[in-house]
Amino acid sequence: MTEDVLDCMATIAKASSEWGFFQVLNHGISHELLREMKEEQKQLFEMPFEKKVTSRLLNNSYRWGTPSATSRDQFSWSEAFHVPLSEISLEDHSTASSSRSLREVMEKVAGAMSKLARTLAGVLAENLGHPKDCFTKSCNKSTCFLRLNRYPLCPFSPEIFGLQPHTDSDFLTILHQDEVGGLQLMKDNKWVSVKPNPDALIVNIGDLFQAWSNDIYKSVEHKVMANGKKERYSIAFFLCPSYDSAIGSCKEPALYKNFTFGEFRKQVQEDVLKTGRKVGLPRFLLR
């Protein structure tokens, strides 16, 4: 490897340890493809709310707000289509040419982001002395997701979250955000705004990577603030393993109990139903 490549790998690992977030330039995903995705995304979200809710678009993947919220600080002023990669190309009864065009662009974006995510995960695994595919080989199209997000104008801004504070329940997330901004991450107990960069993709560490790395890499809390003047769009790719995949520590002594991704997801869902909030990794710490 060249010195430049080694320096880049070291920078990625350092950012993942200190911030849990970093931005990637020269990522290989064309601006034209991302522009096409946003155009398709806008057309999709411009459909009437009733149609989005009832027509089973993209295999019934539509989500809005936070149905489980019991207070204002648990509510997210946003809507999304959260689609497993395995279902992007599946036909449903919405087979108009516009739907086919949307699916074709989503397939291209998902493929490109999946390739990038696996490359970056490999860099981080190798930095800890493990084969680059040591856990990504368990990631497949049925458990990895592409999420199309829209944050409508909010008359209550800045009192409302576009997306409430949370950590991601995956290995790695890749995000393309537009020029509006609003994404913030927690650093040293303070919220830090992530300035939009049209040439960059944002990458953040998820809970599974933090557990696997034994807290070397950090899954940090982040949120999106609602906006009263402009709507916001983003695209997120989530690198997740199969539900029966064991998430063990890459070193000893381990900080977390052995658990599967399926067990983690189930615990998160139970906590959200009971309390309105995700607890996440603290549930699996060894005492």
UniProtKB/TrEMBL annotation:
Is Metal-binding set as a keyword in this record? yes
The Fe2OG dioxygenase domain covers: 140-241
* Name under which the protein is recorded: Fe2OG dioxygenase domain-containing protein
Respond yes or no to whether keyword Iron is given for this record. Answer: yes
Listed GO molecular functions?
metal ion binding; oxidoreductase activity
What family does the entry list?
Answer: Belongs to the iron/ascorbate-dependent oxidoreductase family.
| Species of provenance | Dioscorea zingiberensis
Cofactors named for this entry: L-ascorbate
PROSITE patterns xref list: FE2OG_OXY
Q: Which UniProt keywords apply?
A: Iron, Metal-binding, Oxidoreductase
